[in-house]
Design goal:
With 175 residues, the protein is an all-alpha fold. It has a domain at 5-119. Helix content is 67%, strand content 0%.
């Protein structure tokens, strides 16, 4: 479900609102890698704290845990909303970190490929030996090898006649 900025502002403290605002697109692109890492760490700590509080309140409401305050919690919608907002901000920060990592890897790969190409083009290759068959002046023909048939001519004639008789029988059958 979509949350309005008013609901988010009500659920978060001023410091948490600042963390969430920095995780949104215009501001997140301007952060350096070190700032992004620090922001990710702080947001993760706040999210973990919000999760702990929401879980504790849920256990108090069900009667599974003793109350931390004077009375057990009656509702945990606020802490669940805070957890949800911080989790979404953390997902945006993780996505930006992954995007930057992929960009760096791609840049590094392209640089390595260009360096390898430059090294390959710089080296001198030895010419191919001329004694091998090659296609530059045309292939030299190989002598044709004829294989003597090992089947005697009388056998060939007998088999040919047998096949002809079998075919004639099949042709004579009614359809």
């Amino acid at each position: 479900m979509a949350r309005s900025p008013k609901q988010e502002a009500r659920a978060l403290t001023a410091d948490e609102r600042d963390l969430v605002a920095k995780s949104r697109p215009p501001a997140i692109k301007s952060l350096t890698d070190a700032q992004l890492t620090a922001l990710l760490k702080r947001t993760r700590e706040r999210r973990n704290r919000a999760r702990t509080v929401a879980d504790r309140q849920r256990r108090e409401m069900r009667g599974k845990a003793a109350a931390r305050g004077a009375a057990p919690s009656k509702a945990d919608e606020g802490s669940r909303l805070k957890l949800s907002v911080l989790t979404t901000a953390l997902q945006r920060l993780d996505a930006e970190t992954q995007r930057r990592r992929r960009t760096k890897a791609k840049t590094s790969l392209v640089a390595s490929a260009r360096k390898a190409l430059a090294l390959k083009q710089k080296t001198k290759r030895a010419p191919a030996p001329s004694s091998t068959r090659s296609a530059d002046t045309g292939l030299r023909g190989k002598a044709r090898v004829t294989v003597k048939s090992h089947v005697p001519p009388s056998m060939r004639g007998r088999v040919r006649a047998q096949v002809a008789r079998a075919q004639a029988k099949r042709d004579a059958r009614p359809r």
